[in-house]
Amino acid sequence: MDKLDLPSWIVGFVDGEGCFSISFTRRTKLNCKLEVRASFSVSQKINNKSSLLKIEDYFSCGSLRYSKKDDTFKYEVRNIDDLYTKIAPFFCKYSLLTNKQKDFESWNTVILKIKQGYHLNCDGIKEIIDIAYTMNSKGDGRKYTKWELLQFLES
Amino acid sequence: MDKLDLPSWIVGFVDGEGCFSISFTRRTKLNCKLEVRASFSVSQKINNKSSLLKIEDYFSCGSLRYSKKDDTFKYEVRNIDDLYTKIAPFFCKYSLLTNKQKDFESWNTVILKIKQGYHLNCDGIKEIIDIAYTMNSKGDGRKYTKWELLQFLES
After folding, report:
1. Under an 8 A CB cutoff, do B9 and A4 touch?
2. Which ipTM did the prediction report?
């Protein structure tokens, strides 16, 4: 039996099931009223938890949690330093083979902006919103429209 | 950027999204009343069709079709000679890394039995049913229970 190349296996798994996400939460106590969060996640049906443990083990960061809603396990990395030093460099080194590559590139731009503090002022958040709303089928499934988010910023 | 190993990428994708299936259809005109079919398939949301084309291109068999029901594309190989000469040898050479490997091994046993004509007599079909109903979470989502299938055989 031929030995698999683990990074290529992970890219294949993530091409199928991974998600690079930038999300916005309304926080009325914050100056700009919006909290920006980045994450990388991979979901699987409950009987395939072992695959997620393998990915967690490879990246040495993030955690697994169970979603009762859709009876799945999700491996998720939310810590910005882990995203910046572990997840982003991996996918810069090993390019995704599907349309998801475009999402990764946008996500990677936002990760860099967050590291530079763009998410702490309203102009920076606007730039991040512009990028985020071109990703993952242009914002399908988001709680707020882009227009609503911009309204929160200006309120 | 490092070059990906395509077989490893395919194994990762299939570990996440692939399905090795043995299905049974009631056919009252057949001697044993049951038709046995094997397939290998991978599904994706409509915006990720390119990944399936890559897999189809690699295996040089099977076809893509659109499922209106869940708005997905499915790459599927159903021809037994393609399954036997292209799909099975690939996953014998490159082992899956998740629990799906067990399903593949059972599926591979059935593929060999079909090649040997076991699906054309009732005792052979019984053996195939026994194996198939241990696969993919032990038959969840099947139209018939194992008991019902055995009743059809004896009717």
Report:
1. no
2. 0.86
pLDDT value at A138 more than 60? no
Q: How far apart are CA A144 and CA A153, in angstroms?
A: 13
Q: For residues B127 and B146, is the Cβ–Cβ distance under 8 A?
A: no
Interchain pair B98, A48: CB under 8 A: yes
pLDDT per residue over B95-122, tens digit each?
999 888 999 999 999 999 999 999 999 9
Which of B53, B92, B98, B136 is the best mutation test for A, with the most CBs of A within 10 A?
A: B98
DSSP per-residue codes, A86-108: IIHHHHHHS--SSTHHHHHHHHH
Where exactly are the structural domains of chain B? 6-154
Terminal Cα distance for chain A, rounded = 61
Class of A6-154 per CATH?
Answer: alpha beta
Q: How confident is the model at residue A1 (pLDDT cuts 50, 70, 90)?
A: low
Question: Which of A1, A15, A100 lies at the smallest CB-CB distance from B95?
Answer: A1
